[in-house]
Amino acid sequence: AQSVTQPDIHITVSEGASLELRCNYSYGATPYLFWYVQSPGQGLQLLLKYFSGDTLVQGIKGFEAEFKRSQSSFNLRKPSVHWSDAAEYFCAVNNAGNNRKLIWGLGTSLAVNP
Amino acid sequence: GAVVSQHPSWVICKSGTSVKIECRSLDFQATTMFWYRQFPKQSLMLMATSNEGSKATYEQGVEKDKFLINHASLTLSTLTVTSAHPEDSSFYICSAGVQGGGALDTQYFGPGTRLTVL
Known about the structure:
- The complex is a heterodimer of chains A (114) and B (118).
- In chain A, 0% of the residues lie in helices and 52% in strands.
- Chain A has 114 residues and is mainly beta.
- Chain A has no helices and 12 strands.
- In chain B, the strands form 2 sheets. In chain B, strands 2, 4, 5, 6, 9, 10 and 11 form a 7-stranded mixed β-sheet that branches. In chain B, strands 1-3-8-7 form a 4-stranded antiparallel β-sheet, with no helix packed on it.
- The termini of chain B are far apart.
- Chain B has no helices and 11 strands.
- The mean pLDDT of chain B is 90.
- Helices cover 0% and strands 58% of the residues of chain B.
- Classes of the chains: A mainly beta (114), B mainly beta (118).
- Chains A and B meet through strand 5 and strand 6 of A and strand 5, strand 9 and strand 10 of B.
């Protein structure tokens, strides 16, 4: 069965430090991968997505993610975190079937220390 | 682009009443809309998938008679929580799918609706 794992439930970093949020997936075919961010009291915003091609994907707000097929991973990175990046981050896989459902990770809560 | 709105953003109702939540894609036509429920500090739980002009497909364990979904147009879907009870209190989120080629969709999310049933 398809699944998405975000191993880190909660991460705390200092402002200005680099960030990497991990995401591993289990999927039989080429996955379509997404990272979403949910700020407190707000809806989910698409940060970036991978469909095919270049395995390093650039997103909004200075985020990037790298698809590594050999490791079944799609980790999210940012070189320098800002206090406004504190939020919940969700990784998801599109099953690319007729119903186009997203399979979600449980999320990683990011806290940023000043 | 790809903006999705939800109305209302929050609602408080009495037990036994029905509540309707609207989801609109403002600047694009969505072939598919999705309804999710999110519990505090948890991930999203897909409730149902709806395609314009056809009946919604509900996930296992979701009562279709309790959570009525209507997808009347390519820009509007509604979720009606019928005879709401306190256990239905939750954060309901909709998304609209934009076809990215083949069977691929990117989902764009509404801001959510906080439902509190007294």
